[in-house]
Amino acid sequence: MPPELNVAELTAVFEDFTRMAIRLPEAQRLSFTTLSVLHTLAHGGPCRLTALTASEQVTQSAITQIVIKLERDGLVERRPDPSDGRGVLVHITEAGTAVVDGRRAERKARLAELTGRLTPAERAAIAAAMPALARLVELDRR
């Protein structure tokens, strides 16, 4: 009989794993929210400051300051919204995409190293859980 899912334990493991995964890359030390903005733009495309404020769950002034810093660093740029001449869309630049891709590559390498130290049964258990974890992400996006 399969073990029951302990949601409290799942939550604790997800929190610990997320903290570890966020900190794995050594390059481009940026705040969590700053990195989240880059990931949002890399995966969701250009968006307005108001949409970033909502998705990142920060204040309008905080997101404005983050975008100003990212713009200064050449990682994002603001362009007029073609559907509304008064609006502005924040776009990730090639340099910003390189940060996201570089961090993912570094995280992948480190996770490969760590998973290489697991037993075959532990690796198989993670592989077996992948479809269910992907489904959780899909359910959350709906």
Account of the 3D structure:
The mean pLDDT is 90. Helix 2 (32-44) crosses helix 5 (94-115) and helix 3 packs across helix 4 (60-72). This protein is mainly α. The protein has six helices and two strands, in the order H-H-H-H-E-E-H-H. The chain has a two-stranded antiparallel sheet.
* Sheet with the most strands, sense and barrel status: 2 strands, antiparallel
Low-confidence stretches: none
Order of helices and strands: HHHHEEHH
User: How many H/I helices?
Assistant: 6
Record the strand order, biggest sheet: 1-2
Provide the descriptors you would attach to this structure in a database record.
single chain; mainly alpha
Q: How are the elements arranged and paired?
A:
Layout: H1 7-23, H2 32-44, H3 49-56, H4 60-72, E1 76-81, E2 84-92, H5 94-115, H6 120-141
Antiparallel strand pairs: 1-2
Q: What is the gist of this entry?
A:
The protein has 142 residues and is mainly alpha-helical.
